[in-house]
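Chapter review: from sequence to fold.
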Amino acid sequence: MNYYLLAPEICLLCTAFVVVLADLFLQQKRILAAVGIVGLVVSMGLSLSLWGNGGETLFDGMLAVDEFALFFKLFFSVAAILVILASTDYVLRFPRFQGEYYALVLLSTLGMMLMAATRELISIYIALELTSISLYVLVGFLKDPKSTEAGLKYLLLGAVASAVLLYGMALVFGFSGQTHLEAIATSIEAQLVGRAWDNPGLLLGLILLVAGLGFKIAAVPFQMWAPDVYEGAPTPITAYLSVASKAAGFAVILNVFLIAFGTDLCFDWAMIFAVLSAISMTLGNVVAISQTNIKRMLAYSSIAHAGYLMIGLAAVTKATSVADFGPTGLIFFLLSYAVTNLGAFIAIIAISDKIDSDLIDDYSGMGRRAPLLALALTVCLVSLTGLPPTAGFLAKLYIFNAAVHHGLTWLMIVAVINTVISAYYYFRVAKTMWLGAPISEQGIPSSRPLRAGLSIACLGILVIFFMPGPFLNIAQTVVGALP
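The token string follows.
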């Protein structure tokens, strides 16, 4: 077996161990962040070296090394690098545990990489648990009442979601007798299942899979954990949850539903996702209006964006190749959302860490106190709204076009109405920063690594808007790699 195909994951695992060991001997803890970033960069290089290898598999088809898996490995690595850059000031809140913090970020990234690469139900579950356990600990890392409550809530609800997902997998296995995704698809075709409701057991299995994975992407009605967890977790981990964890959930959904259920049953699960999309968009945006805490506001924004992303799952039909508008739009939207949301949270980390508050009212006059930070956050909020000249505009345009192309005009109308609603609470923050009276005249200093991470994110927002072609080509290549 060619173990070089696992080189990105092995590199990340070794880096996590090196970080833990170095923490025992190094007095300058900032070096730990540098070690983590170097490990992630090397892992990215190894992933790039495997690009275009023709789509090999490992362990009898359990793990795939194709453009789909490699794209998400690069995606998670970049997200982790930005989170580590944003954490360099924040980790001073827990000086004794910086090594453990960075190691858990790396291990959760490793789990997400495996989630995207797996093509078998049991290995999907194991990879998901590796990711989840690391994130449970990271959410409660501050050890204050809010963080402890958030960690406990995430742990308990995550355990329930994992059980639901496992029950769904068991029912699918009971119907098909297979755990490999392609073998499940072959079994379903052989049994001539026209629609999911022709077999109640398979239908229940599909519903439980949607429920278990819906928890990972914070889709309604499985979103109850998001506001409290986003508020209580360390802000860099909130950013990581909102982007990387959500992307990992969508990677698994694309794998499972396009490969195992992408033929005869696509109409059934696509309609489920269409309904969940409309509900998630509406509830997320409407409830976000009343939020006074910026992290809770972005939690509900994240729920709404899960709804926008699910349009890409709903826009799939049996007559259409998987590389068409829906899944391709989803990948492109994920790219745009990642740089946008990470940029917003990095700016929030820089501001909130100095003013010691996450209340929107306390951001008053930030345009005078920290004009560059306020400008960066404003650009991210404009992109989250979906207005030009930002990546968010093209992402919504592309995925709304996918809805119309697949006869989901009603869903596109719901999405446009929700985009208008979202502008209210996003621009309320911008108004507070630029038109409000400053609470203090004191500036908001930030470290060079944090400014570097914020600059990368904001640059990504503009580059994707002005040069979308390469990113759309990558999205098409990624989705086309699926069997």
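Two observations follow directly from the output. The chain has 19 helices and two strands. Residues 318-323 have pLDDT under 50 and may be disordered.
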